[in-house]
Amino acid sequence: MSMWKGLHMTAHAAHGIHVSSRFIHKHTRLCTLSFRNISTGRLVQNDFFKDLENQLKAFREKAADAMPGSDWTPFEKNRSLPPERADIVIVGGGVVGWSIAYWLKQKEMIRDGVRVLVVERDPTYSQASTVLSAGGIRQQFSLLENIHLSMASADFMRNINEHLSVLNDDPVDLQFNHSGYLFLASEKVAHIMEENYSTQRYAGAKVALLSPTQLKEKCPWINTDGVVLASYGLPLTGC
């Protein structure tokens, strides 16, 4: 220790070099050398030990990543490429593809237990059918499964921020308009509409049957010639 102090004093007196030590890891001490420019009096940092410190930090991080259960790989990862492994691959990232991916992750028993990969040829979604279509959700189906799926989808979109909101970000706005869905039936198929109506009501769908007179009162601009029955998906907010 006395020898180190002597070296410190001699170096400082002869060349203006100042030697200091800094604690950079639990049981590791490295010396950081700096010298004072004689002409300007400016402190100039020697980059050697700084670079060494950065290398040690990177090594410690890589060693931690290499522990069991991590995703570390000796090969350099290109973030623009898909992962090398996936449990489920979904081709097509439209509303159906993303919905499948979302619910698979929501239903997994262990967090990050299922690796789901969605492959979409248009990452900007500027040409995807989902964003190019106006879309529409109706409950007037003849199968219970379709009715329940439609009702669940409508509920999901009505409460979209409970599912897809991001902390400290603007609320999600789907511009979801609740304007109802109207079907018209002639005398030939009116009985089918009535049968489907019974199934829809049994499933809990909000649907109303309208006579031609009621339909005309609700939507005066519609030509009701040949219309025997109308099925309207609530809410009754307009046509």
Automatic annotation (TrEMBL):
> One MF term in GO for this entry?
oxidoreductase activity
Domain FAD dependent oxidoreductase: from-to ranges: 87-227
Q: Does the keyword Nucleotide-binding apply?
A: no
> Which Gene Ontology CC terms are recorded?
mitochondrion
GO aspect biological process, one term: mitochondrial respiratory chain complex I assembly
Q: Which domain of life is it from?
A: Eukaryota
Arranged from A to Z, the UniProt key words for this protein are: Oxidoreductase
**UniProt cross-references to SUPFAM superfamilies, sorted A to Z:** FAD/NAD(P)-binding domain
InterPro entries to which the protein is assigned, alphabetical: FAD-dep_OxRdtase (IPR006076), FAD/NAD-bd_sf (IPR036188)
Function, in words = Required for the assembly of the mitochondrial membrane respiratory chain NADH dehydrogenase (Complex I). Involved in mid-late stages of complex I assembly.
| Name of the protein | FAD-dependent oxidoreductase domain-containing protein 1
Source species of the chain: Salmo trutta (Brown trout)
Phylogenetic classification of the source organism: Eukaryota, Metazoa, Chordata, Craniata, Vertebrata
Gene for this chain = FOXRED1
